[in-house]
Write a structure and sequence with these properties.
Chain lengths: 234, 308, 260
């Protein structure tokens, strides 16, 4: 299995300047590797820093220490030191992320929001829109909603729009933050199928899953962030 | 050199020749020289208070006073006519303060001061045409800041002039500006021939006579040296056109001159006559007749004399 | 952004002093074609001063602003002749003001407002100018029949869209925006943001947008600069700056947003 992402000696702490500059260490010395075709579950109790670590992998959070290297267009790039331009490029073509929050401009139709990552990659609008229709259909978003902004949708519907948007482009590396939370059984099955398809095309996936069933169904391994918690080995 | 008018019987002995003192004339002449050197460029000058209100031709009068000499023959027209109040009083002003000969004949004049019109008869190299100008700045319509309009002239930023013409076409279907129609002078400066009707714009182009413009209130002088290229601004698909009339002059039958509409009575009867009274009279003398012409003419050539 | 790695704009050590008072100090950054840079900070932090200095409206006390011109290569905008600079400003650059009245001619029609830049660069065919204006009106979602109406008869949101059309008609590559959504209702803002984002993407515009609205900054900009007391105190990827702010002031700014 070929390596796609490699985090070495990563540490993270937050300094809260607005609260008396208290520094909150999260973890240190994290070593993490992700290879093509595998799906690693990030585990650890609530507050252990799973989401923080995932955001660091996406360069949404900075690293206090260490490096996170990503295979992008055949080159290893360290996202902790890469320029904003490179990070945007990496996110555009290499690194997909399904977050729990839907952040979109009001008024833009759901269909366009889902198709956008493909359009940004240069796919023609028709092909991209067709693929968006497919995904929205599979995720059971009723067609009558496609021309509406997802901001008016229910939480579960927004989550599925997020998933559709995250899976439309075949990113080599995918980060999934609780993709099945607040989904019913049928939709969860669809998401699991999507993850399986991504794995079989060789995507390297890291995810946070709130339930064992999902984790057991798709994951090839797990990674416990708790063991790197500052003070964990004291 | 002071040139005081000597004969108290005919002149105004307490005034300098042509009213203005020599220093003022010199200052104006310097402005005129600069204006001639930079065709179409507005030269600021220290305009004086004149014994007439702004709007009555104080700019033109100062220019005329600065260029007139004892041997000149002056013609003054307002709306093309020699016999209107403004024309008559300015003519009398110079007859009194400079004791120059005056005329109503375009061909006989060496200096012609005008408001609005350019005589129909072609002017010669030995003639000077002095315009009275109310608003010299063509860009003022859309740009109220003087600092900005000056910069626009300096940098040849004239897009705004076409914005005005664009508005005309979008509102009226054609360029509805009929007077103060902007022109490009010598491919460099945009100039406002205000308030001359656009009918006369083509006459400015390549004219043999020197053309001087004086704006009294705004204190600006500009000029067109003889044989200067003057092009009216337009669009490729809406080219510049002069006004045309379906009627002919009621008195002389002219079809090629600028016509004024005259209401004859309360019944709405009307006629068109040449705005250039001298041109009309000359044609009538040559035997041309319009449909309303009776052997006792309504006015034209005789009107001016009666008024004086 | 992919093909063009040459910066379109390079600002170096830009400082603007008003006597002893600092307008902005030691600001340096680069902007690439198609890139949107947000400048945030509270009122008086120097955002607008910086924008004016970069956009050649106010010569800085110190520092350089270099621009990759279409014809002459990289030029220092304050070393250009005034004629060249003004030409640049009305062709390859655009400036969208917070108040559309500052960016529009209120006494001429919408069509003339859009056509002005075309006429300024020598377009002399009325029909073409009008068609072009009409098509731009469509791009900013204003009905064709408003082409001959005065901007004063438009709503605030329409005026702002008209201002954008008027600016973009010459296909500029760099657009400066000063609080473009500032005076608008929330619903109107959303429409404008959507429109702007579409135009930025379709026309590959580089944009420097000054805003005090962090949500606007998040939705439009790739990179973010946070200013305080005339200095850039944090600068980076937009979501990184907003989600994991490092500087005390940025943390305060981000934590002050009302959640909905």
């Amino acid at each position: 299995m070929s390596e796609m992402l490699h985090a070495q000696n990563v540490a993270k702490s937050f300094t809260l300047h607005t609260q008396g500059s208290v520094t909150i260490p999260v973890f240190e010395g994290v070593e993490f590797m992700l290879s093509a075709g595998e799906c690693i579950a990030l585990t650890g109790e609530s507050g252990s820093g799973k989401s923080t670590f995932m955001r660091m992998l996406y360069a949404n959070y900075t690293c206090s220490q260490g490096s996170i290297k990503v295979l992008h267009d055949g080159d290893w790039l360290d996202i902790t030191t890469a320029s904003p331009h490179s990070i945007l490029e990496i996110r555009k073509r290499t690194l997909g992320y399904v977050s729990q929050f839907l952040r979109v401009i009001p008024r833009v139709p759901t269909l366009d929001i889902v198709a956008e990552p493909l359009v940004a990659l240069g796919t023609d609008r028709k092909t991209a829109t067709d693929k968006a229709r497919d995904l929205l259909t599979r995720l059971r978003i009723p067609e009558r909603l496609w021309q509406l902004s997802p901001l008016t949708f229910s939480g579960g519907e927004q989550q599925r729009v997020n998933i559709a948007r995250g899976f439309i482009a075949d990113y080599p590396i995918m980060l999934l933050d609780e993709p099945t939370a607040s989904l019913d059984v049928q939709n969860r099955a669809t998401v699991l199928a999507l993850i399986e398809e991504a794995k079989s095309r060789g995507a390297a996936i890291a995810g946070i899953f709130h339930d064992h069933e999902t984790r057991d169904a798709v994951c090839t391994g797990s990674f416990d962030v708790t063991s790197f918690k500052v003070g964990a080995n004291d | 050199m002071e040139q005081t008018v000597k004969n108290p019987a005919n002149g105004a002995p307490d005034y300098n020749f042509a009213y203005l003192d020599e220093q003022t004339k010199r200052m104006i002449r310097r402005a005129l020289l600069k204006a001639v050197a930079i065709p179409g460029y507005q030269v600021p000058f220290a305009g004086r208070e004149m014994p007439m209100p702004y709007g009555w031709g104080t700019g033109g009068v100062q220019v005329t006073a600065a260029v007139i000499g004892p041997n000149d023959t002056l013609k003054v027209i307002d709306q093309g006519a020699d016999d209107t109040t403004n024309a008559v009083s300015i003519r009398q002003f110079f007859a009194k303060t400079a004791q120059v000969a005056t005329t109503e004949k375009t061909a006989e004049a060496s200096i012609i001061q005008t408001r609005h019109r350019i005589p129909e008869k072609e002017l010669r190299e030995d003639q000077v045409l002095v315009y009275q100008v109310p608003i010299p700045e063509p860009l003022r319509f859309l740009e109220p800041r003087e600092t900005e309009t000056r910069k626009m002239h300096a940098l040849e930023e004239y897009g705004l002039m076409h914005v005005k013409l664009y508005e005309d076409i979008s509102r009226h279907g054609h360029i509805a500006t009929t007077y103060a129609y902007p022109v490009m002078v010598d491919d460099r400066y945009v100039m406002d021939p205000s308030p001359t009707p656009k009918f006369d714009n083509p006459k400015m182009n390549n004219m043999a006579a020197l053309q001087l413009f004086g704006a009294g209130r705004e204190k600006r002088i500009y000029a067109l040296p003889p044989y200067t290229k003057v092009k009216s601004l337009d669009f490729e698909d809406h080219p510049f056109e002069v006004q045309t009339w379906e009627d002919e002059c009621g008195m002389c039958g002219a079809r090629d001159s600028y016509l004024d509409e005259v209401i004859l009575d309360d019944q709405g009867n009307r006629m068109f006559v040449c705005s250039d009274t001298d041109y009309c009279a000359e044609r009538q003398e040559a035997g041309h007749r319009g449909p309303q012409h009776h052997d006792q003419p309504l006015g034209t050539a005789d009107r001016g004399k009666a008024a004086e | 952004m992919t093909q063009m790695n040459e910066p379109l704009l390079r600002v170096e050590d830009l400082t603007m002093m008003y006597g002893d008072r600092v307008g902005c100090k030691d600001v340096s950054f680069e902007l690439r074609p198609g890139e949107v840079l947000g400048i945030v900070g509270e009122s008086g932090s120097g955002k607008s001063t910086l924008l004016r200095s970069i956009s050649a409206q106010q010569e800085p006390t110190n520092g350089t602003v270099e621009y990759q011109t279409r014809i002459d290569g990289v030029r220092d905008v304050y070393q250009m002749s005034e004629a060249q600079r003004r030409l640049l400003m009305r062709t390859d650059w655009a400036f969208v003001h917070q108040n559309p009245r500052d960016g529009l001619r209120m006494n001429v029609s919408a069509g003339a407002n859009i056509g002005e830049r075309l006429m300024a660069i020598g377009d002399r065919h009325y029909g073409n100018i009008r068609n072009n204006a009409d098509s731009w009106l469509g791009k900013v979602e204003i009905a064709s029949e408003r082409l001959d109406d005065l901007p004063s008869t438009f709503s605030g949101g329409m005026q702002q869209r008209l201002q954008i059309a008027r600016n973009l008609v010459t296909s500029p590559r760099l657009v400066f925006m000063d609080e473009p959504t500032g005076g608008l209702d929330v619903s109107v803002q959303a429409r404008l943001l959507d429109l702007l984002r579409g135009l930025v993407h379709d026309l590959n515009l580089a944009v420097i947008i000054v805003t005090h609205d962090l949500a606007v900054a998040r939705l439009l900009s790739h990179r973010l600069m946070v200013m305080q007391q005339g200095k850039v105190i944090e600068h980076g990827l937009t979501d990184q700056v907003l989600d994991d702010p490092q500087h005390p002031y940025t943390q305060l700014l981000v934590s002050s947003i009302l959640q909905n």
